[in-house]
Amino acid sequence: MRTLVLMAAMLAGCTRPSSVPPAGGDGQEVRVIGVPASVGSAPMNVRTVVAAEGGESVYVTGPLAAEIRALSGARVEVRGRRAADRTLVASDYDVLSVNGRPVFMGVVERAPDGALQLRTRDGGLVRLQGAPAAFRPGMKVWVQGPGSVTVQTYGVVRN
Predict the structure, then answer these.
(1) Using 50, 70 and 90 to split pLDDT, how confident is the model at 43?
(2) Whole-prediction pTM value?
(3) Where are the alpha helices (DSSP H) in the chain?
(4) Are 135 and 142 in contact, with CB atoms under 8 Å apart?
(5) pLDDT digits over 60-107, tens only?
(6) Regarding beta strands 57-61 and 87-97, do their DSSP bridges make them parallel or antiparallel, or are they unpaired?
(7) Angle at CA 49, nearest 5°, toward 137 and 151?
(8) Which helix (H) or strand (E) covers residue 61, if one does?
(9) CA distances (Å), 93 to each of 18, 31, 88, 98, 112, in order?
(10) Strand, coil or helix: what is 24?
(11) CB burial string 83-122: b at 16+ within 10 A, e below
């Protein structure tokens, strides 16, 4: 029993490498790739955490935290400033994939012909055939589908 306790104490000090720089780099720009999740108990104490692929997770704060939390389960890249140990103030993010498949992300717009389209970050337009009735201009969403136009799956990031 004593051996197990000693082994557990030794293993507790071992951590896997992380894409998050070690403490002491407050204010440092960092990039974390991983999967966001919501932790805590609603309605209070709910936090956004990104389980970094490198091992250690980070708490995400700032005005983009709610959008990143809405991407729970997706694979994202979050960029921002390190605020404290394991805390990242997000300044930007990209959705890399959902369920292992690439996505188009942007803001829903009404096309001149009345159809819906998605304006991507780089200014490109993706026509949304088969868009859900819930889509409204101004919503920030991600979509998946063949040929980049027929919506098969989607998620609302911001209403």
Answers:
(1) confident
(2) 0.74
(3) 2-12, 65-69
(4) no
(5) 999 999 999 999 999 999 999 998 778 999 999 999 999 999 999 999
(6) parallel
(7) 30
(8) strand 57-61
(9) 18, 9, 12, 14, 29
(10) coil
(11) beeebbbbeebebeebeeeebbbbbbeeeeeeebbbeeee
Q: Which tokens hold the place of 40?
A: 């805590």
Please check the confidence at residue 124 and state whether its pLDDT lies above 70.
yes
Q: Where are the domains of the chain?
A: 27-96, 104-158
**Fold type of domain 27-96:** OB fold (Dihydrolipoamide Acetyltransferase, E2P) (2.40.50)
Residue 89 phi/psi, 5-degree rounding, is -90, 105
**CATH class label, 104-158:** mainly beta
Q: What is the mean pLDDT of residues 107-136?
A: 93
Is residue 14 exposed (0-12), middle (13-18) or buried (19+ Cβ within 10 Å)? Answer: exposed
Q: HSE (CB half, 13 Å, CA atoms) of 18?
A: 18
* Segment 149-158 mean pLDDT: 79
Rounded to the nearest angstrom, the gap between the alpha carbon of residue 123 and the centroid of all alpha carbons in its chain is: 21
